Amino acid sequence: MSHRAPLDLPDFLQNSPYLPIINFDIDEPPPSKVAKPSIAQILRSRPVRTAIPIFICGLFILFLLPRGTRKAKELNVQYKTPACLKQAPVVVEPLTGEETGIQWDKYAYITYATSKDHLCNALMLFESLQRLQSKAERVLLYPQLWKDAWVEDVHGTDMEIISKMLIQARDKYKVKLENVEILQHRHATADEWAESYTKLIAFNQTSYEKLLVLDSDSTIRHPMDELFVAPMSNSTQILAPRAYWLDAQGIPQLASHIMLIKPSTSAFERLQVEFKKAGLGTYDMDIINSAFTEQKDSCGLLDHQIYALLTGEFRRPITKHSGFWGKGHEMDIWDPESVFKKSKFVHFSDWPMRKPWKLNNLEWTVWAPKCVPVEEGDDCRARDIWDGLYKDFRERRIMLDIERIRRSISLNYWDTLNPETFTTYQPVLHSISLSTASATSAMIATTTIAVILTSTTSFANPLAISATTIGLKIYKLYA
């Protein structure tokens, strides 16, 4: 062994006795290689175990966010504030009944139905129009698929029910049936929203000069024929109410659940352009607003207080009606009775509550408006009006179903039906209707209804059998 200095030391230290002894006979071991971790080791590591739950939670939160955000809409359907929203609603004079020279065959009420439920709702609208002695014609847009299935006798029971409702609309309520191709957007998710684009086809019904487009989840309280003779300039293609419930969010828009339109090829083509470029979260109301903002006078306002009241307005606190009153009237006193008395058309909109034909008893109780404490006691007028609207809708729907079934079967016991029974058992019918949240309960409940409605002085065995038959038939409506 010897002292050997590293080569990079100064010369005077090369032979220093204090240098470490280096054994040149022993080879230095090669540097060890660090093994690469396996995938399992990586997954078991602390950083990864910490990151995975955070990543999963992030995805879950992202999934829960609404997909149809306003930003997404703005990126795909750009629209300015319609000029008509800056104007006052058009003044519509009521009809006296003595008007002459009005060509009512040039005007029509129109709605659409793309499901069994919507078709039943449409029948209710047409029944109301007939009861109110409307003079304008009535049109129903329904899917081409239904016509094909009708001819080919497919889809079994559902198609049988749909066919009977279409025939009832045509024969009893004098409705003109128009089968159309359903408009469905590539980004659409929920069927109910996706198929609402079908109402846009109303702009292509050019055999009429004016059409009053109605959403079927609504109630017509008073005649509205006066809208067909409302003042519209030559350039105005649509009269619609303000979507007043969006004013608080700073989103000025026209509503689309009721629209007076002038059908034309140019208007329909414009809507088709907007429809094709619309993105995720774009609804029919957005497309309407996008299509009718370029021309200054292409739209006009209907008074929403008369023609576009929402049921949800009766659930708002008494200090939260500024959107309904409009600018300059924010401090007006909320009087539910006078508001309701003034309204002619009410739209069922109580988000997040479901529509009245889907509502069950628990939801009804939870979402019903609360009475307001006042000096004299509790003011329950808003609650009673709201409750009455939903009861009326449910009861008319049940009566329509039972009437259709009564007309479809020829049994002698129907001749003994006591008309007073309908009025006597209205509360019972309402409570039973609330239990029809499933097909099974619908069968039980409607069988009970059938027994009640066929009540006579005695319950003979044939009557019980017939009532059960009716219950089973009504069961098919809800199955």
Automatic annotation (TrEMBL):
Superkingdom of the organism of origin: Eukaryota
SUPFAM superfamilies the UniProt entry points to: Nucleotide-diphospho-sugar transferases
GO molecular function terms noted in the UniProt entry: glycosyltransferase activity
Name the UniProt record assigns to this protein: Glycosyltransferase family 8 protein
